[in-house]
Fold these 4 entries.
Entry 1:
Amino acid sequence: MKHIFKHIDQNLDSRLEQLCEWLRIESVSGDPAHAEDCRTAARWLVDRLAEAGMQKAELVETGGHPAVYAEWLGAPGKPTVLLYGHYDVQPAEKSDGWSTEPFEPVIQGDLMLGRGTADDKGQVHAHLAAVESVLKVRGSLPVNVKFIVEGEEEGGSEHTEALIRDNGERLACDVVVISDSPMFGEGYPSLCVGLRGLAYGEVVVDGPAGDLHSGSFGGGVANPANVLARMLAKLHDDDGKVAIPGFYDDVVELTGEQREALAALPFDKAEFLRTTGSPEVAGERGYTTLERIWARPCCDINGLRSGYIEEGAKTIVPRRASAKVSCRLVADQSPDRVMDQLERFFKEVAPPEVKVSFIRHHTGRAYLGDTSAPAFVSARKALRLAFDADAVEIREGGSIPIVATFAEVLHAPCVLMGFGLPDQNIHGPNENLRVSNYHRGTRAIAALFVELAG
Amino acid sequence: MKHIFKHIDQNLDSRLEQLCEWLRIESVSGDPAHAEDCRTAARWLVDRLAEAGMQKAELVETGGHPAVYAEWLGAPGKPTVLLYGHYDVQPAEKSDGWSTEPFEPVIQGDLMLGRGTADDKGQVHAHLAAVESVLKVRGSLPVNVKFIVEGEEEGGSEHTEALIRDNGERLACDVVVISDSPMFGEGYPSLCVGLRGLAYGEVVVDGPAGDLHSGSFGGGVANPANVLARMLAKLHDDDGKVAIPGFYDDVVELTGEQREALAALPFDKAEFLRTTGSPEVAGERGYTTLERIWARPCCDINGLRSGYIEEGAKTIVPRRASAKVSCRLVADQSPDRVMDQLERFFKEVAPPEVKVSFIRHHTGRAYLGDTSAPAFVSARKALRLAFDADAVEIREGGSIPIVATFAEVLHAPCVLMGFGLPDQNIHGPNENLRVSNYHRGTRAIAALFVELAG
C-alpha cells in the first residue's frame, strides 16, 4: 500500500489539473443545448480510462446521453468491483450566487470550487486515479474492476435503469462502490449504509363543478379545501407517527446497537437549525433527529393547491383541492404497497360529499446495507488506512434509486463511500470538494481494492 | 291603485323600449374605457327622472363614476322612501357564451335578454316607471321619494360608501327599498330579509428558511403544509360546526317560526345540486340547506397554497404554507370580533416549531331586517297586490355591504325586493329579466308607495 499511496501523493497536482479539464466541460444533462458537451465529457472519460490501463473503455449508447463502460478483468478468482458514478451535472450560472465561474474550477487552498467537483465528477475522478495508481505501481489490479459512469443521473437515470437491467451479465460483480454521498463531517470518513425510499402521490378532491360564490353557497356544500385539510390532518397522529393503516408493518426497526452508534455521532442541533432555517426540530416522538431523517419513514406534503392563490381575497368555494404527498420509506417497506395504503387511506377518510382521485407519481425502494458483509469490513479498513480515522456508519434520508436497482439486478452489496463534506453545496452555488478529501478518497478506493482481494 | 296599475299596463311596451335604450349604453364601471359611457348612462337617468316628474334630479360627483340623486318631497308628514340601485354593469362579450349581443337587448316572448336587464338597470327602471305612473295618474306621490343610483356597485361601491356617510341628512328616510336580489322562483314574490356578513383573513405558516430536500430533511423538521392542514382541520368539529372558540356567541338563532317558513319554501335539492355541481349537500348538522346558506354562519377555505403546485412531482419540504379563510356571518356577529377570534385560533393551534402570521383582508356586517316593522308589512301587501301571490321571506347568503351602511347611517329598515329569477345569470352570459316580472315589479313599487302612506 505504501508505494501505491506514495504514487497517489506524488501525482496529486497533475491529477487535479486533469480533473479541472473535465470540470470545464459543461455536461449539463438537463439542457438539450449541452447534449454535445455531455458526449464530450463521456468521451473524455473513456480516453482517460484507457490511458489509465483499463482493458476496455467505451461509450455505451443509451437512447439518451451516453454512458461510459470500462473493465479490467485480469484477476480471475478474485472479486469483481463495479464502480458507479455520473459525469452529468446540474446547471449553474455565476449569477446564482457563485463566488467564481461555476465551469472555471479553481483551487483556493484546500477548497476546490466548481460545478461537478463533488457531484460527481470529482469523486469519479478519484476512482479513476486510484485504478491508475494501482496499475502503475503494481502492473495489475488485485481485483477485477468495472466502471459504469452515466450521464443522466441528474435527470433520474431513466435510460441507465434500463441499461443495468439489460446488462446484468456484463455488469455482474461482487460489490458496487459509489462515491456520491457526503461524509458526516471533516475527519469522519463515512460509510452510508442506508437510503430512504419514496412513494410519491397526489390526492385530488373535487366538489362543485366550478368555483362557487362563497356567500351564496358557503356552508351548504362540501368545500374541497376544507375536506382536504381534514383528510391530510389524519396522516399523522399526535405523536408525529404516520397514521396510514399498515404503514409501519414492514419497517426494519433500529437495533439498540445502531441507535447507540447514531447517538455517538456529534450531531450539532444548532448547526442543523442554521442549515434548515427551521425554528425547531420536530418529528416522530421517541426518535432523535438523525434517526428521524435517516432511519425512520415519514410523510410530507410537498405541495398544496386550491382556489384563489394570488394576492388579496376572492370569495369562492373552490371546486377542487389537491395535495402532493410523499412518503420517505425505510427497509423493508415496499413503495408499491405504501402507495396502495396511501390511496386506500385517502379514499377511506374522504366524506361522501366529494370525489377523491389519486395520482401515482413515482416510487423508489429504500436501501439498507448488510454491514456485516465482507465488503463493508474491507471498506472500513480501507477508510481507516486512507483517513487515519475510524469510519462512521451514516445513512442518507434521500433516495438514490439506482442503488436499489443494483441490489436487485446484480444481487451485490453497495458500498457508498463519498468524500464531500456536508457543506459541499451540490445543486447550489459554490459546489466544492476539499482537495484533501479527494486525495484521501483516492487512497481509500485503492486500499479498498487491496482489502477486497483479501 | 286600479288606475295606477292600468297606466303601468298600458305603458309597458314604450317603457321597455326606453329601458332598452338605457341598456345599450355600455356602462361597464370596471373598464376605464367605458368611463364616458358610465357618465352617459347616469345623465340618461337624470333626464328620465326629471321627465317623470321628480322635483330634483342631478348628477353627484363622487371622485369615481358619478351617482344620480333625485327627490320628490311633496308629501309632508308622510314617510320618505329612499330607492337605491346602480346603473353600472359587469363586462360582457358575446363570445362569453351569449346567445345575443349583450349590449343589444332583445325581448323574446317574456324573456328580456341583455347585460344589465336584472343587475340592475332593469330593476331601477321599474322604480322609475312606478314613480312616473303614480305621478301621471295622481299628480303627486303618496310618500316622499328619493333616488340614489350609483355607478360603482360592481367594483365595491367605494365612493358610494363615503357618499352615504357624508350625506346622511340629504338621504334621510324612513325606509330604503332595493331591487337587486333575486326572487325565490317564478310565482314567489320575495322579500330578502337577511344578508350574511364576512370576515376574510389569511393564515401564513412559515417553517424552514427555504424549501428543503424532503429526503435529506423530511421527518426532522416541521413541514408547514402538514402543520397548516392540521390547523385548518380544527376549524370545524365533526358536526360541521365552526370550532373557533366564541364563534357562535352573538349568533341570532332562527326562531321556530322562521324555520317553519324556510321549510315551507319549495327548495329543490336536485336543482341545487345541478346548479352547484356538488355530489351532495353538506354542512352544519341539524340545519337544512336553506338555513345553512342563508341563516347560519360558516367558515370556508377560499385558497390554499404551499410548495410545488405545478404538474408532476418535486420532493421538497415547503418553506411556507398559507390559506385564505373567510367566515360568512349572520346577525349579530361582529366581523371584527370574529377576525380577532380567527387570528387567536390560528395562533393557539399552531405548534411551536413554526411561525404563524395572520393577514386581515376585509370584513362586512351581516344584515337582518326586523320583519315586524311597518315597512315589511306594507311591502308584503304591495307584493301580494302586484303578483297576486303571497310574498315569501328569503335571505341571501352573500353580502351587500351597502345595506349595512344604510342601516348604520340612516337608521332605516332596508326592504330588499328584487324581481329577477334565480336563473337571471347576473355577471354571466345571457343575463335576463322576465318582462312579466319587470311589469309586476313596477306595480309592486307603486303599490308600496300607497301602502307606506297608510
Entry 2:
Amino acid sequence: MSHDHALEEDLTLTPKFDANGLVTAVVTDVANGDVLMVAHMNDEALRKTIETGDAWYYSRSRKALWRKGESSGKTQRVAEMRMDCDQDAIWIRVEQIGGAACHTGRRSCFYRAITKGDDGAAKVAFVDAEKVFDPAAVYK
Amino acid sequence: MSHDHALEEDLTLTPKFDANGLVTAVVTDVANGDVLMVAHMNDEALRKTIETGDAWYYSRSRKALWRKGESSGKTQRVAEMRMDCDQDAIWIRVEQIGGAACHTGRRSCFYRAITKGDDGAAKVAFVDAEKVFDPAAVYK
C-alpha cells in the first residue's frame, strides 16, 4: 500500500479534496453517537464550519454552499471535528437542533436496515423511521 | 430540492453507485459509537458483506476488492448495516477485531481534532492517537 506519512502524522490541516473539490463529511449526533447523515464539504464549507461553529456543506445536486438547516431551521452546532488519516474525510459530532437531520423528516438519514433474508438475498426494513417533522410543511 | 421519493421510501436495496461504481461506507464501532473509518463499496463488496457478515470494501488506490483485515488480521464483524435516504451511503456498525481499524495502527482513522485557534485559523491536535499495533510489524 502507498501511504503519505506526512498527511497522516502532520498537525496541519491539508485536506485532500477530490476532483470536484470535496471531502466527505460524516455527521454523528453528539447525544448518542448515531450517524445522522453523510454530506460533502468544499474548502469554503470547511472554513465556515470551523469559523462559525455551525455546519456548512456543499450540495452536489444544487452546486451551492449550504448552511445546514437554512431552510428547515434544523441547524447543527458543532461539538467536535476530526479529520481522518489521509485527510479526505471529516467526522463532525453535532448537536442537532430540532431533533432531525434528514430532509425526509427523520432524525437520521439512516432509517433503513439491511439484513440477509432467509433466501440469502438482501432484505431492507425500516428502523427508527418515525418522522419528527412533516417535510411538506417545512420545505415550501 | 429534487428528491426521489421511491429511493427514499422503498424497502428495496437499489444502491445509487457513483460514476466509479461506488457508495460511501461509514464504519462505526458498535462498542462505543465512534467512527472508525470511511471506505467505499462497489456492488460486489456490498453483496459479499451482506452474505458473509464480514466487511468487504473496494480500494480506490489499489483498484481491488478487499476484505478488511485480510493482511493485518484486523477484520470487522458486521453488527448492523443501514442505508441512507438517497441510497448512496451505507452505515456499518462493526465489532472491530484486534481493536484497531486504521492502517497507521490506531483504533480509529479519526485521531486528529480540528479546532479554531486563538488567531481564528484552524488548529489540529492529536486525540486518541495511541498506536494499538505497529504497522511496520503488521504489514510486511
Entry 3:
Amino acid sequence: MNPAVLKRKIFNDPIYGFITVPDELTFALLNHPWFQRLRRIKQLGLTNLVYPGALHTRFHHALGAMHLMTEAIDSLRMKGHQISEEEAQGATIAILLHDIGHGPFSHALEHSLVSHVSHEEISELFMAQLNIEFKGRLSLAIRIFRNEYKKKFLHQLLSSQLDVDRLDYLKRDSFFTGVSEGIVSSDRIIKMMNVIDDELVVELKGIYSVEKFIIARRLMYWQVYLHKAVLSAENLLVNILKRAKELSAKEHEELFCTPALRRFLFGKINRKSFIDDTSLLGIFAELDDNDVMTSIKVWTKHSDKVLSRLCTNLVNRNLYCIELQKKPFPKKQIDELRKKIQDRYKLDAKEADYFVFSANVSNDTYRPDKIRIKILSKNGFVQDISDASDQLGIDMISRTVRKFFLCYPKEFRDKKE
Amino acid sequence: MNPAVLKRKIFNDPIYGFITVPDELTFALLNHPWFQRLRRIKQLGLTNLVYPGALHTRFHHALGAMHLMTEAIDSLRMKGHQISEEEAQGATIAILLHDIGHGPFSHALEHSLVSHVSHEEISELFMAQLNIEFKGRLSLAIRIFRNEYKKKFLHQLLSSQLDVDRLDYLKRDSFFTGVSEGIVSSDRIIKMMNVIDDELVVELKGIYSVEKFIIARRLMYWQVYLHKAVLSAENLLVNILKRAKELSAKEHEELFCTPALRRFLFGKINRKSFIDDTSLLGIFAELDDNDVMTSIKVWTKHSDKVLSRLCTNLVNRNLYCIELQKKPFPKKQIDELRKKIQDRYKLDAKEADYFVFSANVSNDTYRPDKIRIKILSKNGFVQDISDASDQLGIDMISRTVRKFFLCYPKEFRDKKE
Amino acid sequence: MNPAVLKRKIFNDPIYGFITVPDELTFALLNHPWFQRLRRIKQLGLTNLVYPGALHTRFHHALGAMHLMTEAIDSLRMKGHQISEEEAQGATIAILLHDIGHGPFSHALEHSLVSHVSHEEISELFMAQLNIEFKGRLSLAIRIFRNEYKKKFLHQLLSSQLDVDRLDYLKRDSFFTGVSEGIVSSDRIIKMMNVIDDELVVELKGIYSVEKFIIARRLMYWQVYLHKAVLSAENLLVNILKRAKELSAKEHEELFCTPALRRFLFGKINRKSFIDDTSLLGIFAELDDNDVMTSIKVWTKHSDKVLSRLCTNLVNRNLYCIELQKKPFPKKQIDELRKKIQDRYKLDAKEADYFVFSANVSNDTYRPDKIRIKILSKNGFVQDISDASDQLGIDMISRTVRKFFLCYPKEFRDKKE
Amino acid sequence: MNPAVLKRKIFNDPIYGFITVPDELTFALLNHPWFQRLRRIKQLGLTNLVYPGALHTRFHHALGAMHLMTEAIDSLRMKGHQISEEEAQGATIAILLHDIGHGPFSHALEHSLVSHVSHEEISELFMAQLNIEFKGRLSLAIRIFRNEYKKKFLHQLLSSQLDVDRLDYLKRDSFFTGVSEGIVSSDRIIKMMNVIDDELVVELKGIYSVEKFIIARRLMYWQVYLHKAVLSAENLLVNILKRAKELSAKEHEELFCTPALRRFLFGKINRKSFIDDTSLLGIFAELDDNDVMTSIKVWTKHSDKVLSRLCTNLVNRNLYCIELQKKPFPKKQIDELRKKIQDRYKLDAKEADYFVFSANVSNDTYRPDKIRIKILSKNGFVQDISDASDQLGIDMISRTVRKFFLCYPKEFRDKKE
C-alpha cells in the first residue's frame, strides 16, 4: 500500500458529501496561508444579514469548484478525451486559486480598498508568487487560467458562461441561503459535457438542465445577489469606509484600525503598488472580514457623528430603507429627503449624502460576446444555446434588467404606507 | 386587513424553509442590538476548521429553536392542552434568549474571558435588563426560563433532556457540517409530544425517534463536538488567550486589542463585576468572534515568540498533532516531548507547556438525575425512556466515555507512523 | 383531553415530513374504497420505465395537495381573511377528491377505456355519489369544486394556473424522478398568497418564486412528461389496447381479462353509460394499474402476432425507437419504414401501423384566457404575472412548442448513426 | 471517440443523482426480461399501505447496490488494491443479480408460493441459466457470489454484515418512506473501506458511521420492516393465499388466477421442481406483484365468505387490529376472541383462525457468527466493531428483541380504549 495515497485528504461538505483533494501539490497549496486566509472571507459578504445561513466562505466555494473540476475531467476522460495527469492538475489548481485575489466584502469594496486593480489581477499576482515558491510547478495552471494553453476547453471549464465556478456557486449559495430557485443539476450538466473541436459543449440531452441553469442564475440575481436589503447593507458598508477614508485624509484623526486594513484603507493602492512593493501582497493577505467588522464596531463610538451613526446602523442591522423601481428617482424627491435628514440630524449637505442617495443595478446575463454555451446535437452539429433552445430566445436570456434604487434612513419612511 | 399582521417577519432558513416571528414583542427583541450581536458569534466556534460549512451562528440557532417552540406549542394545543397567548409568548421569548449570554468561542473560552460566571447567568442578566427596557413584558418569559412558572412543561420544552434547544442544534449542526449522523426527526418528536400531569412526555409511537435522537447526540459528540482536530484547535485558542493574559499581566506590555476584548481579557471579571458595574453588560455585548480573531491575527507578529508562534499556527491552521486514548498518557512520554520542544524552540519549561500538554474530555450523556425523557404508553402509563426502550438500557445511554488526549506540534510527530 | 382529537391521523411523507388529516369527515373519505383505489394508480403511468423512482400514486399526490391546501388556508387566515371551518373543510375535500375520477394510465388511456367522458366528469360523478352516502356533507366541497361558491378564491386555490394541485405535483414528480428542474418553492409561494377582491394573488416578494414555478413547469414538460421514451411507452400501451379491442370486436376471440377491465375495454362507455347504469361507477372503481399490466403480461402469449409482439415489447421494455423534430415527418419516410416492417414481420399494411406511426405533442403553457396568476404590488395594485415580471414576457411564457415524433421498432434503426 | 463508450447508459436516481452502467455485459443483463421483471416487484411489499411513498422496486435497489459496488471498487483501487476489470465486472454483476430470485411479496410469501427453496437458491438458478445464455461470461460473478473466488473481500462487499446491499436498502427505504432514522453515510463508509489480509475492513475514522449504520438498521426494523400495520397487512396477505390454496385443493373450485400464479399457488413447488422442469424458471419469471393484486381484487367477489372478506379487507386497507407485547398472549384471550368472531361471522373454528391469530417476530441483529464488521486502527490492528466501539458493546448490538403480536378484525377492538 502506498502511504502517499493514504494521506489523501478528504473534506466533509454538506453539498457533495465529500471532497477529495486529488494530489499532494494541490493539498500543499490548499494549506498555504494565502489560501487558508479565504476561510475568513465570506463568499456573499453581508448577505447573511438577509439570509442568515449565508456565511459560507470563499475557501469552501474554491473547494467545491475544485471538486466539480475533477468530476468534469473524469467525465470527459470517460468519453475518450485525452487529458494528462499534468493537465488535470493544472486545471484543478487553476480553479482552486481562481478567487484567491478576493479581499473582504469585495463585491462591495472592490473600489474602496484597492482601486484600479481587479481581484482577477490580484489572483494572478498570488499565483505568480506561489509559482516561484513552488518552483514552477504552477506554470501550466497559470497558462490554463490565462487561456494561453493549447487545449482551450480546459480554460472553458473554469471560466466561461457554463463553468464549474458558476455551477458551484449557484448550488452553494442556494444551499446556504435556503433559496431553492438556484438549485442546478451540476451532476447532469457535467455528465453531459463533451468536447468538439477543442470547444466545451453540452450534449443535447442536457439542454433542459442548461436552460434551468440560465434561469436559475437570473432568478438568483434578483432574489439574492441584488436583493434590496443586501444592496442596502452593501451601500452602508461602502459609505462607512468612504467616510473613514475621508476623516483620515482630512483631519489626520486617529482611527482605530488593524495594521493591514490601515495600509489599504488609508493608502492609495493600485496595480502598480503591488509591483513596486513586493511585500504588499503579503499585507493584502492579512486582510479579511474580521478586520473590517472589528474596526466598524469600534467606530460606533467615534466622535464623528456621521461615521458613528453609519457604523451603529450596520452593527445593529438598522439598514437603510430602500426603494426599487425601473425609472430614475426624481431629483426633487431626493432633495426633499436630503433636506429633512440634514435638519433632523444637523448635517451639512455633503454629510447628508451619506444618508440619502440613489444609484442603479443590473443583473449579469448570458452574453453572446463572451465564451458561449454550446449544445451538441445528436448528429454532431454544434449550436449556441439560444439557437438550440425551444424555450429561451437570445433576446430573452441576454436581456439585462436595470433597476434604480433610493436609500434613506428608515425613520424617514412615509408612514402612510 | 390588519396591517400589524402583514408586518409579520419571515426569515429564510435552509433547514425549515421559513421561520415566522410570531409577534411584535418577539420581533422587537430580535432586533435589539444585544440579540443582533449573536449574528457575529458562531455556534460551533472553531469547528469550521474541520467542517468548513460549520459557520452558522448563535443567532440562527436561536431563531431555529424559537421556530420549534412555536411548532411544539401548536402541537400541544391541537391535543387539547390550554396554552394562553401570554404563555406561548413567554416560552417563545425564553427560548429565543436562552443563549444570549454566550460570548465568542464560549465553549473554549468560558473560563478565559469571564470566570466564575456561566453563560446561563449572563443570559439571565441580559433578560433582567431587557425586562426593564421593555417595561416588564419579559417577566413571564423569565419565570418560565427559571422554572418558576406553574406550568412546568413549558420550562421542559426549553430545557430538559429532549428540548427544542437540542432538537434544533443537532439538526442545524448536522446540516452545516454535512455529518448525517446527527439528523433527528424533530417533526415527528414534536408531533408526538404530549403533557401528562404537567410533565412533557412523548407518545409511544415516537419512541424510535427518541432513541434515534439519543444515539444521534452521542455520535455527534465524538464525530463533531469532540472531534480530535476541533479539540486541538480549541486548546490552541485557550493557550493563546492564556499567554496574552500572562504577557499583559506581567510585563505591562502593550498588546493590540479591541477595547471590549481588552476589558474582558485583561480584567478579572466575575459575577460580582456585572452587578457592581451595570455598564459592564453593555461592554460584554460588544464582544464577538471578530475581536478575538482580529487580535490573534495581529499577535502573529508580536515579539513574544510563544504568542506569535501560537497565533501563527491558529491563523494558518497549523494545529497541534493530537493523540486520543482511553488511558492517561505516561508522564515520561510527555516529559520527553517537552524536552525536545524546549530544545528545538529554545523555551523554558513553563513556556514549553504551551506546546505540549495532556487533558481529557468526555461526552455528555442521558442523565437520570436531570429532567428525564418520559414515554407515554397507550394505556396512559408513563415510563422513563430507558425503561420503555427495548434497544437502549439505562447503562448504555448514560455511559460516559472519557478520553485522554495529548497535544504537541506536528513537527514532533513520530515519522515511523 | 378530547379523544376525537387524538385520533387525528398522520401520514409519513418523504416530501413534507408529515401530513395531518384535518378532520373526521376527510379521514372517512380518505378511507373510502373509492379513494383507497388511488393507491393502485400511479401518478405518472409508465414514466417509471424512464425514471425508475416515479412510482408514486394518485393517492399520494392527493394527500400532498390536501396538505398544501391546509397550509394555504392557514396562511390566508393569518393575513386576516375569514375562512370558516366549513369552508376550509369544503376546500380540503374538494382538492382531496379532485382526481378521484382518474383511471389507470389515464394520460395514455383517456380515450381507450372510456370515451367522451373526461376524468373530471368522472370525479364529479364520484363526488355526487359520495355526497349521497355521506348525507350531503360534501355539498359545499362540490360547489367549490364547480366554482359555484361565492368565495371564488377557494376554487382558485384548487384549480387555477397556480394552484395547490400543480404545486404538489411538480414537487412530487421532481422528488420521485430525481429531476431537480421541477423543484418549486411551494412554501414561499403559499406564504406569499393573499386575496384581493375575492381573487387569489401572490405578493410581490414572491414574484421570483412564481417565475421559477412557470419555468419549472415548462422544463418538466420536456424533461419528464413529454420525455421521448415516455411518449414511446405510452404509445405502445395505447396500441396494445387498441389491438386488444380490435381483436375482441372482430373475432369474438377469447382474451384473458379481469372482469372490470373487460367491461371497459370491450364495451362502449361514455358519459351517458354512467348515468344510465348506476352500478357502472362501482365497476370503474375496481379498475387499476394491476388489471392493465396483468392482462398485458398474459397477452404476450396470445396467438395474434401483433398483440403478442406489442405486449412482449412493453413487458420487456423494448420500446419503440422514437425521433423528435419540429417539422412533420415526410410521408415517404414513414411509408418506406412501413414497407420494411411489413416485409420483415409479415404483416398487412394496417397491422404495420401498430409498429410505425407519427404524431405530435405540445406542452401546456401559461394561458391568458384561463384563471391568471396575479401579482400584488406593495401599493395594492394587481397585475398579471406577464406584466409584473421583468424576466418573462407573455409571449415567452405562453409560447406553445409543438414537436412531431416518429416511432418504429428499434431493430429498424439506421445503423449509421 | 469510442462510440461504445458513448452508449454508456445513465439512470436518473433521486438518491445518487445518476447511476452509470459500467459496461456492455452488465447493460445486456440489465435489459434481460428476467431482470426487467424486477421493475414489477416492490422492494418492501405491502409497506406502502403504511408509508405511501414506499413503492420502490427490487429493480431500483439492484441498480443502487450496483452503483455502490462500483464506488467501493474505485475507493479500494485508489488505496492501491489491485482489482482487475474482470473482477470488477464479476462483483458488479453478482450484486446486480443478487436478488433476481425474489418473487412478489416474498417477505410475506416466501413459504406460500414456493416451499423449501429460498430466493437465494432461485437467484443462483437464474444466474446459472443466464451464464449459459451469455456463454460463460458470468462464471466469475457466480464464483464471487458463492464465495468461491480467491479474493474473499469481493464477496464481502456484496454479502456481509456491512455490504453494499444493506447500505443501499437502508438508504433507499429511508428515502422512499420518509423515515430519516435509516439514513446512513454510505459515502463515508465506502471512502473508509480498506482491505487487510483479504478481509474487508473499515478504517477507524469511519467508526462512528459504522455505529450509526448498526443503530439505523436496528431502528428501521421496528419503525418500518416490523411496523405493526405492516405485519398486519402481510399476515392478511398470507392468510388470503392460504385460503385460496385450501379452496382450490379441497373443492376443485374454479378461482380466477393468472396462469403463472396458478402454477405456483396451486402446485407444490420446491427446489427439485425447478431442476426437474427447466421451463419452470421461465414461468416463475412471469410472476410479479400485479398477478397477486389482480387476483385478490377479483376474489373480493368470490362466494367463499372467508376468502372474499379477507380480500376485501386488504383491497380497502381495512387491516387487522394488531397488538404487540413482549410476552405471549394468553390462550384464553385468543379463544374468547375467536368465539366472538365465530358467532358474529358465522364461521367454524378453523375458519375463524383466519381472523384471529397470534405469532411473534424478532429483528435481525449483528451476529458475531456471520461475516463480521472489522475496524482497522491506525497502527494496523484489526478489531471486531463490538470491541472497537466505545458506544456499542456486543451484548447491545447483538441483542435480539422478540415481540408477540395478536391480530383480529378492527370491529372487535375493545371500545374502552
Entry 4:
Amino acid sequence: MRNALRIGLVLAALAAFTAQGQAADENTPPAVQALHAHPARTPPSLLAGAPASAWRTLDPHDTLYVTLPQGRVVIALAPQFAPRYVANIKKLARQGFFNGLPIFRVQDDGVAEWGDTTGRKSVGTARRMVPAEFARPSRHLPFTALPDPDTYAPQVGFSDGFPAARDPVFDRAWLVNCYGMVGAARGNNVDSGGGTTLYAIIGGPQRDLDRNTTLVGRVVQGMPLLSSLPRGKGPLGVYMNRSHWVRIESVQVASDLPAAKRTPLEILRTDTPTFTRYVQALRDRRGPWFKVPAGRVGVCAVPIPVRRAP
Amino acid sequence: MRNALRIGLVLAALAAFTAQGQAADENTPPAVQALHAHPARTPPSLLAGAPASAWRTLDPHDTLYVTLPQGRVVIALAPQFAPRYVANIKKLARQGFFNGLPIFRVQDDGVAEWGDTTGRKSVGTARRMVPAEFARPSRHLPFTALPDPDTYAPQVGFSDGFPAARDPVFDRAWLVNCYGMVGAARGNNVDSGGGTTLYAIIGGPQRDLDRNTTLVGRVVQGMPLLSSLPRGKGPLGVYMNRSHWVRIESVQVASDLPAAKRTPLEILRTDTPTFTRYVQALRDRRGPWFKVPAGRVGVCAVPIPVRRAP
C-alpha cells in the first residue's frame, strides 16, 4: 500500500494528469492515456483538503521499524486488539531477538513470513508463547462501520486506523487479514504463537485467517520491500535455499530511536468526517474515467491513508 | 496464483507435513510449526482424488504465452466474455505487436501494465480501438454460483474457469478483477481500449474496476514473474527510468507453437462436482490448524486450480 508514497506521488502528478486529461481527445488511443486507465484508489484532492486534525501522528511507542538490507518497513502496532502480543513483540525487539533472523517464506498471493525458524532462539525476559488474542469485546471500541455487505462478517469497518470486523450480538470485534496486515504465526494450539514468527499479507486478503491468528498491526510504509521479494519455490513459498533468505538487520521500537532517526508518519484518523467522505468517494468513484461506480467498497479495498508529517 | 506449482508442491509436501504435524506436540513452539501456520488455500487431497474428467486442457487457440527475460507467463483468454478483444489481441500477437514492448508500470497492491506506451506503434491488420466488452448476457452462460454474499455484485461465482459476477434481473454477467485477472487499459472513452496495453492484477482485488474495463483473461501460470517485479516509483507505479522497463520478448498464441514447445496445463472445470466440493472445503476449512472456519468464501479467495497435464 505504501500510502504515504502513493498519495504523495498522486498529488504531485495530479496537475500534469489533469491538464493532460483535459487536453486529450476522448478518442485518443489507449496507450497515450494509459496513466488514466487505473486511477489510484485514493481520491487525492479530498485528502489534500483535509484539516490537520483529521490526521494523527503514529505513536512511536507502538511503532516498529523492521530494517532490511533494502530499507525500512514501518509497522503500526495494534495494542487495542492484541495488548499481550504487542507487549511481547516489543520486548523481543528490545532484546534484539529479531536481529539477524530471516524472512524465510514468501508465498505468491499469500504472505511473507519472518522470525525464528528454529523455535530455540532465547526469548530472554519475553515469552515464547502468549495466549491467543483473536478477538476482543466490541462495546466501547471506536468503530467506523462500512454500509456495504461483507462476505465474511456481520459488520466491517475501521477502528483506530485498522480494518476490522465486529459482531454486535456476541460483543466481539477483530482485525481482518487485508493487504499489509501483520499477524503472529502459531502451531495447531491456539496459544502456541507469541510473535517470535510474524507474517504480513502481500497478496489478496486472507479472510479465512480471521479469528484464527492474532493480528498485531499493519505495515504503513515499506510494503514493496516485502511484496516484491522473490517468491519461494518450496511448499507454501518457503525459500528452499538459505542463500535466498532475507536477513533482518534489526527490529526496533520507534520510540527507542532519537527523533531524528524516526520516520515521521501521520495516519488519517478513521473516526473523522474526512475519512467518512474519503470512503464515500471510494464507493462512488466519479471523474472522467469511471463509467460504472461500484456504489460499494470492501473493507480491504480502502487503503488507510498515511503520509509524511508535514 | 501459479496454482499448478502451488498445488504440486503442496501435494508433494503433504506427507512430510502431515507426519510432522502428527508427531508435533500441540505446544511445540510456533516456529517449528511455522509451515502449518498459513496453510495453502487449496485443499490438496480433494484435488488429488479428482477424476480426470474434472479437468480440461487449456485450449491452445485461446492461450497466450508472454515471454519475459525471466520466463513464460501463461494467460487463459476469455472469448466467452470478450470475443472482440480476444480476437484483436490474438491478431496483435500474431503480428509480433507486443514483441519488444515494455512492462512500464508496476503499482504495489495494484497492477502490472504492459504494451504500447506511445499509442503509435502500427497495429497492422488489427484494430487500435475495440468497442468495450464490459458485460454480456447472463442467460445460457454456465455459472457456478457461490452461496455467500458479495460486497459488489448481486451474485458471484465461476464461469468456464473465470471468477465472474451476474445480475439475473438485468441479464448481465461480467468477469471480476481478482488477483491474476488480465484486462485492457483504456482512455476516458469506454471504447478507446483495444488490447494494445494490458494489465494484470498483482495485489488485492480491484473490484471497483469491474464493468469499467474489458477483462480478457487470467494468468494461469507465471504470476510471480509479474507480482515480484520492483514497484515503480512514479505516479501509479510507473517506472520513472526506462532502464527499469521489463522488455517483453514475445507474446504468442499457444496453438502457433509446436506441441513440444507448449506448456501443457489443465484447469479444474468449474462446472463439476469436484469444484463444488473444493469450494465447500475452502468455505469450511478443517484440520488441526483452523479453529474458526469462516463458513464463507469470497469469489476472489478461490484459486482456480491449474496443473501440468499428467
